[in-house]
Specification:
This protein has 446 residues and is an alpha/beta fold. 38% of the residues lie in helices and 13% in strands. The strands form 2 sheets. The chain has a 7-stranded mixed sheet, with helices on both faces. Strands 8-9-11-10 form a 4-stranded antiparallel sheet. The chain is globular. Residues 286-294 have low confidence and may be disordered.
Length: 446
């Protein structure tokens, strides 16, 4: 089976325990059309068959990592209450669980005693809050991010009416420090976004060098680690990536998405600030909402209002089962993902029929079938993508600038500005054990 269902009896037992908390209430039974529900659910199941097999190790395409069973069950359990973590009135228990879960993530980054943060609906909203705070502290100043950074940074800057400029990348898809210095010397920069794990190539920007430039130029550093943030715990990073993760505690804000490598259902993002004093920028008054407690309501430090408390419950439960320690099962899973990526890259590099680029920094591998011209390589990549899917191996495609590829493929004639390449996100620990089958299929269609 592809879909895990053995854990469902645990949900029924937990529901019985949850029901006990309402034993003092007068008897009440909600009318339920069981036949109608069953019929509609079958319709839903039939419609949902139109999906890729995201949970299977032969799905190695986009960033779609299945939630851990405990996260899935805890989320469903919470939905029988349906808490709203905007105010304590809407979710006392789930709000407390959110604070504990976020504090655990902050501690992972070295912010154990002092931080401000909360969950969001995803990385886009989390990055919006980070740049909104930055814009308030450096009004009208420019936001810089690499050309391989997520497109949301330029889009968010436009929404916030902050000037934005891209910084060139080096030959490994990382922010180019020389170009960054050139742009900083103009004196109009308020924030630099460092991406620790670009979504296109998995590149890790050189954070130590960015921190050094902050000593010379005054700007905030925001780390977008939505995809790569949990790799801090992996034990097999390269030296450059390790150096960047090891100094992450010195930045001003961090975004990480538990719904990527944190084993959570969509949508669950997290925004963290090193200085809790930025909370003053959120200040607002809502007496009809915040009236049940003198404690901090999460809605007082969030741009979003209503938020699913179930996300916090699921995250808390996952962290309870799989603590975020460097010697634990959770960290070992991340190391297996990178090991799988390194091995696939090694096999591709040794194959004369394949073209490779830089070694994976995290768990994303990029390559292409050989060809004499860029346009031919793009066509062949698309063909391999389709043929692999026919054999139940699901990959992804990515367009990379010709300027980035020239040094890796000196014999290729680049007749277009970009080249379509194959891309694989080996986000499941199980990918390591399925690599022989993945390789067999690739060789069959090459």
């Amino acid at each position: 089976m592809v879909l895990e269902v053995n854990s469902l009896p645990a949900l029924e037992r937990a529901l019985q325990t949850l029901e006990e908390s309402f034993s003092q209430m007068p008897a009440f039974e909600q009318e339920t059309d069981l036949d109608g529900i069953a019929s509609v659910l079958q319709d839903v199941a039939l419609r949902m068959q139109d999906n890729y097999p995201y949970a299977h190790p032969l799905y190695a395409g986009q960033m779609l990592k299945p939630p851990h069973p405990v996260a899935r069950l805890a989320y469903m359990l919470a939905m029988w209450v349906n808490p709203n973590n905007h105010a304590l009135d809407g979710g006392r228990a789930s709000s407390e669980m959110e604070k504990e879960a976020v504090a655990a993530i902050a501690a992972m980054y070295g912010w154990k005693d002092r931080h401000l943060g909360h969950l969001t609906s995803g990385g886009t909203m989390a990055n919006l809050e980070a740049l909104w705070i930055a814009g308030n502290l450096h009004a009208g100043k420019k936001v810089l991010a690499s050309s391989q950074a997520h497109y949301t940074h330029s889009r968010i800057s436009a929404v916030l009416k902050l000037p934005f400029e891209s910084v060139a990348c080096d030959q490994q898809g990382r922010l180019d420090i020389t170009d960054l210095r050139t742009k900083l010397e103009r004196g109009d920069v308020g924030t630099v976004v460092a991406t620790l794990g670009t979504t296109g190539a998995g590149a890790v920007d050189p954070l130590p060098e960015i921190l050094s430039l902050r000593e010379e130029f005054e700007f905030r550093i925001h780390v977008d680690a939505a995809y790569g943030g949990y790799f801090l715990l992996a034990d097999n990073l390269g030296s450059d990536s390790r150096a960047s993760f090891d100094c992450i505690d010195r930045v001003d804000s961090i975004v990480v998405d538990p719904h990527k490598h944190g084993l959570q259902p969509y949508g669950c993002g997290c925004i963290l600030f090193r200085d809790p004093a930025v909370g003053r920028i959120y200040d607002h008054d809502s007496p009809y909402t915040y009236f049940s407690s003198d404690e901090l309501h999460l809605g007082e430090i969030s741009l979003e209002c209503s938020r699913a408390g179930a996300s916090a419950v699921a995250l808390w439960a996952t962290q309870r089962l799989l603590p975020m320690t460097r010697d634990g099962e959770f960290a070992q899973g991340l190391s297996k993902c990178r090991a799988a990526a390194l091995e696939l890259h090694r096999r591709l590099r040794a194959d004369d029929d394949q073209l490779t680029v830089f070694e994976p920094e995290l768990d994303i591998v990029i390559w292409a079938p050989g060809g004499r011209r860029g346009s031919e390589i793009s066509r062949r990549s698309s063909t391999v993508f389709d043929k692999a899917a026919e054999k139940n191996l699901h990959l992804a495609l990515v367009k990379l600038p010709a300027d980035l590829l020239r040094s890796y493929w000196p014999d290729v004639g680049f007749d277009e500005e970009t080249v379509t390449c194959l891309r694989s996100c080996l986000m499941k620990p199980e990918h390591e054990g399925w690599l022989d089958e993945i390789w067999r299929i690739l060789k069959d269609i090459s």
